[in-house]
Amino acid sequence: MSHRKAEHVKVVLGRDVEGRYRYWDDIQLIHSALPEVDFDEIDTSVSLLGHRLNAPIVITGMTGGFPDAVKINDNLARAAAEVGVAMGVGSERAAVLKGQYPESYSTVARHAVPLKFANIGAPQIIPQKAGDRVVGPAEVREAMDLIHADVLAIHLNFLQEMVQPEGDRRARGCLEQIGLLARVFPVLVKETGAGISHTVAESLRDRHVRAFDVSGTGGTSFAAVEHYRAVDQGAEREARVGKTFWNWGIPSPVSVLEVVPLGLPVIASGGVRSGLDVARALALGATAAGTAGGMLRAAATGFAETKTELETLVHELKVAMLLTGSRSIEELRRARYVVTGETRAWTRR
């Protein structure tokens, strides 16, 4: 498991794993030529799940469970604490079920991140084969305590599992188990690059889930990540499946539009690469935006690069706010926009 997690990071940093289309570019904010806003008066602060953030940005869960992840997660957590944004970690199964490199997660607890997300995969909350140990309330509590988490993120990664040579193939029963965990813990459900539909989000809301991270297609494709791993392992069928389903999923902006009407907090992630993308997501109604790929590359380099990347995202967000005449995030959520390209076709389906 530790080796697999290291391979994921290596592939993301070294291979082309992006989706074929930039859906966020289809969201065009309407320019205000006379904004009547001073840059210094713009307020980017927001409340997310009862926690105040300096900016509506979440470093979405990426990694943990192998030696080099200590440095990556420490850089991310330190930068998140200093800039005042939220952060999640990668799946903690390695630590709570296997005892592998818990320090790669617990380093996050050393920093005063204003909102922290623990992370467990939905396939691990049901038995995949007879005799399997599953993640239950005790393991969830351990995962949350490990990083001093405020919220549990349960990630949905069934596309990835279908391509992964050693992937889990069972999904029946996950919805019920998510509901049981959501009665005990504050739960956010997040996708991992294929998006969440209105129907799925509604079924989760009805089972006490408190928030969503849509993580739609258009950013890092985990079908692509697993395609490369399958090629390297000589798993020809899985390699082909990864190529076939490289761009599978609901586009991130479309998923935001699907889920926002349910009235729960929505984190827009999947292809968010700039502060302009953050602004686009908020104009669509998202509570915050999540970013991963650019932060991973920065954190693998050093803390200074990580903090600079975060601060640049916030600066770009403020530029977009000024150019739409928005003094606050609430005003930005009322900014006018036009939907073009493939995203427009999706919204007209």
Distance from N terminus to C terminus (CA atoms, Å) equals 41 Å
CATH class equals: Alpha Beta
Q: Roughly how many Å is the radius of gyration?
A: 19 Å
Which stretches are low in confidence, meaning pLDDT under 50 for 5 or more residues running? none
Sum up the overall morphology in one term: globular
Kindly state the number of beta strands: 12
- Find the CATH topology: TIM Barrel
- Can you name the CATH architecture? Alpha-Beta Barrel
Give a short account of the largest sheet. Answer: 8 strands, parallel, barrel
* Main sheet: strand order: 4-5-6-7-8-9-10-11
The number of distinct helices, counting runs of at least 4 residues, comes to 16
SSE topology string: HEEEEHEHHEHEHHEHEHHHEHEHHHEH
Overall number of structural domains:
1
What fraction strand?
A: 5-15%
Characterization of the model:
The structure is a single chain. Helix 2 (69-83) packs across helix 14 (303-323), helix 9 packs antiparallel against helix 10 (236-244) and helix 12 packs across helix 14. The protein has a single domain (2-347), classed as TIM Barrel (Alpha-Beta Barrel), CATH 3.20.20. An eight-stranded parallel barrel has the order 4-5-6-7-8-9-10-11, surrounded by seven helices. It has a two-stranded antiparallel ribbon with strand order 1-12. A two-stranded antiparallel sheet has the order 2-3. Helix content is 42%, strand content 13%. The chain is of the alpha/beta class. The chain has 16 helices and twelve strands. It starts with a helix and ends with a helix.
